[in-house]
Design brief:
Blueprint (H helix, E strand, L loop, with lengths): L8 H6 L17 E2 L2 E8 L2 E8 L2 E4 L2 E2 L9 H14 L12 E8 L6 E2 H11 L1 H4 L8 E5 L6 E6 L2 E3 L6 H10 L6 E3 L3 E7 L5 E9 L14 H8 L11 H13 L27
Parallel strand pairs: 6-13
Antiparallel strand pairs: 1-8, 2-3, 3-4, 3-5, 6-7, 8-9, 9-12, 10-11, 12-13
Keywords: Signal
Length: 282
């Protein structure tokens, strides 16, 4: 059953702080990557990953020891591709070793989240379990010409609602719309991944909807988990600067420790010092 209006909006809103944040480099160039993910495995001192581009395999292994990795454009593009396919915690289980210790996640209304808090929030919803076939369908990978460690790309996620989302809000969504094999088609979103000298992800920006009015999207113009919930009949407030969402997020800071709701953003003490923005949440 598709819900167009959900009663007790204030009650829902209180739950609504979701998701779903010196090396050698090549000269700043913009290049496009259209490879396919090949393999990923762990090994001593590295996380071994290969991405195929035509007949060529590109090594995007992550160094977990104190040694830099050669960061040419092809390696960065392939590393972003493999991260999205295997390690985000959203479209697949999280591999924390691929995140830098000073990692930051930021979305339009969620974040900044430090590494530990990001892992907690992603596991709370476990989108990749509720939609086992969820896929980011990322495309248009391109290295930032002014920030040579940053890779930009678009995605248009799809998946099938087969199990309940995690957490209290996931249970509420299952009450409104039990898992029924319905199709989720996300809005086109802009993401970026910034790597450190070990090819670990230092900064992940995600969920910035590029087109609010795509006719085939099931999200009502919402990104990340807000879009998934809207697809299940729970169109929660998700706008940048929304006074309702800002109040909800402040309340939720006190409830997050109970496990009822996830953190909307980390405390200032848990955000790495390199992060300079003083804007938190919505």
């Amino acid at each position: 059953m598709r819900l167009t209006e959900v009663p007790c909006r204030t009650g829902l809103a209180i739950l609504a702080l979701l998701i779903p944040a010196t090396a050698w480099t090549s000269p700043p160039t913009t290049r496009h990557y259209y490879g396919s993910f090949a393999s990923f495995s762990r090994g001593p001192g590295k996380h071994r990953a290969l991405v195929e581009r035509g007949a060529t395999s590109i090594d995007v292994s992550v160094s977990t020891q104190d040694q830099p990795v050669l960061l040419d454009s092809e390696t960065l593009l392939a590393a972003a591709e493999s991260f999205m396919q295997t390690s985000t915690g959203y479209y697949s289980a999280l591999d924390e070793d691929r995140l830098a210790d000073d990692f930051v996640f930021r979305g339009p209304v969620i974040g900044p989240l430090g590494k530990h808090d990001y892992a907690r929030v992603l596991e709370y919803f476990a989108v990749y379990r509720a939609l086992p076939d969820v896929a980011p369908n990322a495309f248009g990978f391109s290295v930032d010409p002014e920030d040579p460690r940053r890779v930009w790309f678009l995605l248009r996620a799809t998946g099938t609602y087969q199990q309940s989302l995690g957490g209290a809000l996931g249970n509420l969504a299952a009450t409104v719309t039990p898992p029924d094999q319905r199709q989720y088609r996300g809005s086109t979103e802009v993401w970026s991944v910034t790597f450190n000298e070990r090819l670990q992800v230092r900064y992940l920006s995600a969920g910035y909807v590029a087109d609010l009015y795509e006719p085939n999207a099931t999200t009502g113009g919402r990104g990340l988990t807000f879009g998934v919930l809207a697809s299940l009949g729970l169109p929660l407030p998700a706008g940048v600067g929304s006074p309702v969402l800002q109040v909800v997020q402040k309340v939720s800071r006190f409830l997050a420790g109970t496990g009822i709701v996830p953190l909307p953003y980390s405390s200032a003490d848990n955000v790495p010092s390199w992060w300079k923005s003083d804007k938190f949440g919505a």
